[in-house]
Design goal:
239 residues, alpha/beta, Beta-carbonic Anhydrase, Chain A, 5-stranded mixed sheet
């Protein structure tokens, strides 16, 4: 029968479709990983320095009252099954300090651990280990702030022998080493010096905590920094 007749043309067309479909199916079955690899990488697949730069740029916007993140419903569905924080932050529970706002980041961008006085205990340490080991956060930050009430209360206990009620004594116990260290230098402003020292002590513990965090820090996969938020200006300075 003529190769150009309608019957053969129909047969060839069907055959082509079947062969083409089979080929596409085979490619899809053989290369799922390749297809996924072409998708956008997680937002935290960046270097620690790049993550820090993103935070500081965000703070500059916040301090200048030009924040970009104002739609907190955007991307909600995409965040249901996974989170990819670019940084894990130890922050004071002070109501005036909100890391997501201060760094102009949106939901899912920061993994925040908050406690009055931003000190690091074993519970907080476990949270950071989780952020690094399972969420791949490349940056860890200890964020103190000016005029910290928890540090101020600790100074009163150390200097004046004040006794605080309930579990507040536990908080004082964890912040006290920073105050005692700062006091040895006889600073003109003991509160400011103690706040900074409290940040440094927590950052040092994160850097050296074994077996998880110290390994990531030593390899360069994770960076630990200390910083302080100024209540009056909204600006954050690295320590």
């Amino acid at each position: 029968m003529c190769d150009l007749c309608p019957v053969n043309a129909t047969r060839l067309s069907r055959r082509g479709l079947l062969l083409g479909g089979a080929a596409l199916a085979g490619m899809a079955a053989m290369t799922p990983k390749a297809a996924w690899s072409q998708a956008a990488a997680p937002q935290n697949a960046i270097s620690p320095d790049a993550a820090l730069e993103r935070l500081m740029e965000g703070n500059a916007r916040y301090a200048a009252d030009t924040s970009a993140n104002n739609d907190y419903s955007a991307g909600r569905a995409a965040r249901v099954n996974a989170q990819y924080p670019i940084a894990a932050i130890l922050s004071c529970a002070d109501a005036r300090v909100a890391p997501e706002l201060a760094f102009d980041q949106g939901p899912g961008d920061l993994f925040v651990v908050r406690v009055a006085g931003n000190f690091l205990n074993d519970d907080g340490l476990a949270s950071f280990e989780y952020a690094v080991k399972y969420l791949n956060a490349p940056l860890l930050m200890v964020l103190g702030h000016s005029n910290c009430g928890a540090v101020g209360a600790t100074i009163k206990v150390v200097k004046d022998g004040v006794t605080l009620p309930g579990h507040l004594q536990d908080m004082i116990r964890d912040i006290k080493p920073a105050v005692e260290t700062a006091e040895k230098a006889k600073p003109a402003d003991l509160l400011s010096a103690s706040i900074a020292e409290n940040v440094r002590l927590a950052a040092h513990r994160l850097e050296t905590a074994s077996p998880i965090l110290s390994e990531y820090v030593t390899s360069g996969k994770v960076k630990v920094v200390g910083a302080q938020y100024d209540l009056a200006t909204g600006k954050i300075a690295l320590l």
